[in-house]
Amino acid sequence: MEDQIILLGTKGGPAVRQDGAMPTASLLQMDGQNIVIDCGIGLTRSIVDAGVKLLDIDVIFITHLHSDHLLELGPLIYTIWTTGLTRKIPIYGPIGIQEYWDGFMQSMDYDHSIRIADDGRDPLHDMVEVHVFGEGAIAEIEGIRVSSLRVDHPPITECYALRFDGAKASAVFSADTCYFPPLAEFSKGADVLVHEAMLEAGIQSILDRTPGASSLEQHLRASHTMAPDAGKIARDAEVGLLALHHLIPADDPAFNDSHWHEAVQQFWSGELLVGKDGMKIPLSRS
Ligand SMILES: [Zn+2]
Ligand SMILES: [Zn+2]
Question: Is residue 14 within 8 Å of residue 68, measured between CB atoms?
């Protein structure tokens, strides 16, 4: 298996629209491991559509507990279980992840009991290991060093960028954050930086299409990164490639790749990819 990232869902925010991208989820294939980063709704389907077997998922990381990154975590693991899970699957997430998982399992108690009695399955409780992480070196997955950096995503304080250093390559996921210069040092020399991004010109149309969210503009501006600033992080980190995801807007026909390129190019002249659901990004930059 070649080291690569598969972008499963590339839109920012929880809304799902006709023909639009799906909320945030990514799959990192590194040193033979299948690592899921964030679980926006739709990712179970997207993993299968990408040609990856659900039973081959090794570990799951959640950057923060916003629903556009979390909503399908339980359903994904539950579907892996009903597909034939027979080994442990670790989940890494910030404070609150254990409560999410316990609540999800409680909600499935009826079906879970039936499947144990009727199908002869081992309880899913025994197969999932929940690890709560903060900032620092948080895990080693078959030799892959995983570290985290607390980023700036108010009002959520437990939101972490993730860095994966494998035998042959390294990748960083920004999580959701406003422009956060320490992310450049954290991402230093990575082969690929997957960074969230927002287009200034697209904000108004999002507000027009999102009724009932009176402080949405304030949240967007305080908690997310304008595309040129994502370029600045990539430049200062000297990464091999910048891939934009968690796009705001992601499904507005008024904006296409050229708008994103134009916004980023004043600070970043290296390789740039504008994320699309299903996009595969090789990690070897030779
Ligand atoms: Zn988000
Ligand atoms: Zn968020």
Answer: yes
